[in-house]
Specification:
This protein is of the alpha+beta class. The protein has 2 domains: about 10-130, Enolase-like, domain 1, CATH 3.30.390.80; about 140-205. It is built from 6 helices and 8 strands, in the order H-E-E-H-E-E-E-E-E-E-H-H-H-H. It has helices at about 10-15, 35-45, 105-120, 140-160, 165-175, 180-205, and strands spanning about 20-25, 30, 50, 55, 60, 65, 70-80, 85-90. Strand 7 and strand 8 form a beta hairpin. Helix 2 runs parallel beside helix 3 (about 105-120). The N and C termini lie far apart (about 55 Å).
Length: about 210
């Protein structure tokens, strides 16, 4: 990286050694959300997170969404330096198997795991999800910085478009860029949600 060019959020957080903060649970390695959030706030005091709430078909406001089979999901987003990334995370047990109709404690655990994973999308502890034991080498992370900035730009466009035609144009822009998997997943989710919303609005105006 050229001298004088500031590192991106991803580069800064990916360079932090979290190996002494992780813990083993069975065959899985976890970074506690408390340690992760502490590291992020130490570097970015204005960082925030949000746990999404949903409304079910009985008009109850709940911190999760559930499919017809009882599989349950939570969603958390983290904003650092105006970059917002989110994670839709399934409620799982201690061996990472999906839980049907989980209790409140299991939902809360999933929310905290989703928070930790969101922080990994921003760079902190990303190596854990790659199955590595040591922090990633960030000397060649310029491509991640570019993907970070490009995906954030496209998501802002997705959130502001008014027509499906304009949205499809953004979709073509997404296809032109080779995004890493976690950015690609976020973009696909934002695109699908916006397309559904525009379709509903169009139907209401008929």
């Amino acid at each position: 990286m050229a001298i004088g060019v500031p590192k991106s959020v991803y580069q800064n957080l990916a360079s932090i050694d979290t190996s002494d903060l992780t813990e083993k649970k069975g065959r899985f390695t976890y970074l506690s959300w408390t340690h992760a959030w502490n590291k992020v706030k130490a570097n970015y005091p204005n960082a925030t997170f949000e746990k999404k709430v949903f409304v079910d078909n009985q008009n109850n406001t709940l911190p999760f969404m559930r499919d017809t089979k009882g599989n349950t999901f939570v969603e958390v987003s983290v904003t650092i330096e105006d970059i917002t990334l989110s994670e839709i995370y399934p409620v799982t047990d201690n061996v990472n198997k999906s839980v049907q109709f989980p209790d409140a404690f299991q939902v809360n655990t999933a929310l905290q795991r989703a928070l930790a994973k969101c922080l990994a999308y921003h760079g902190l502890g990303i190596n854990i999800y790659a199955g590595e034991d040591l922090p990633v080498d960030v000397s060649n992370q310029e491509e991640h910085r570019i993907a970070d900035e490009k995906s954030s730009e496209l998501i802002k466009k997705i959130n502001t478009v008014k027509t499906i035609k304009a949205l499809e144009s953004i979709g073509n822009d997404i296809k032109k860029f080779d995004f890493p998997p976690f950015f690609k997943t976020k973009l696909k989710s934002a695109y699908a949600n916006k397309k559904r919303l525009l379709g509903e609005n169009k139907a209401q105006n008929l």
